[in-house]
Amino acid sequence: MTRSDRVLADAEAVLRRHSERGQSLSTRARQRRNAGLMRKVKYAFWAIVAVLVAGTVAGFVTPLGTTGVMVALGVMVAAVLLIALMPTETRVRTEALAETELTALPLKTEIWLENQRKALPAPAVTLVDSIGVKLEALGPQLERLNPQEPAAQEVRKLLADHLPELVTGYQSIPESLRREERNGRVPEKQLIEGLSVIDAEIARMSETLASGDLDKLATQNRFLELKYQEAKELGE
């Protein structure tokens, strides 16, 4: 079994585990989806109310009759269908990622990835969910990072360049060729392998930033201990 085959098999195994446990989406992704669904329900409700009110007012002027009632029902159904077809989430353009501030980049990247889900194979969608969870954790860490630091530039390059290029590169390949081997490489396996590497790299970055915070906290704690000891000795 080649390395790509192993990556594909591992990703499919993760997909099965996540489907069984139902914990693959980040908290923000679930909140956005729930909020989007609630908006659709509200829009549908008010659309039906508007049609009913308009029909009632029209009925006072001229009796609607069977035809009028059928027209009103048709307008209700059409309105509900149109609302159901509305996108649940805000769309993020690929080009916008490069223009996004560092602190907002994880969230924008997460939303952008969510927009690509339907065009990706199932194992890749699982990795997208995993990346989303890690981006949610990475966001607050970047608020304490100077955008000019090498670490910040590394994060920006990964999220705004490498990740979009990997996904859009795969999407540009005709669907009939995505599982065909060419020069010893299969586009779908390359996508899954690349997303696996990015998933691991985001985890590494988060751990590195967390280690810096822990070291800083330990230094501050040691400083307080020394100050407390000095004050205690002076008091004696």
Number of helices: 8
Instruction: Give the % helix.
Output: over 70%
Beta-strand percent range: under 5%
Determine the N-to-C terminus distance: 71 Å
What are the secondary-structure elements, in order, as H or E? HHHHHHHH
**Biggest pleated-sheet summary:** none
The total of beta strands comes to 0
Overall pLDDT metric: 78
- Uncertain regions spanning at least 5 consecutive residues: 17-23
Structural shape: elongated
C-alpha-based Rg, rounded:
26 Å
- Helical/strand content category: mainly alpha
Question: How would you describe this structure in keywords?
Answer:
236 residues, mainly alpha, 8 helices
Q: Topology of this protein?
A:
Blueprint: H1 3-21, H2 27-61, H3 65-85, H4 94-99, H5 105-116, H6 122-142, H7 150-171, H8 187-235
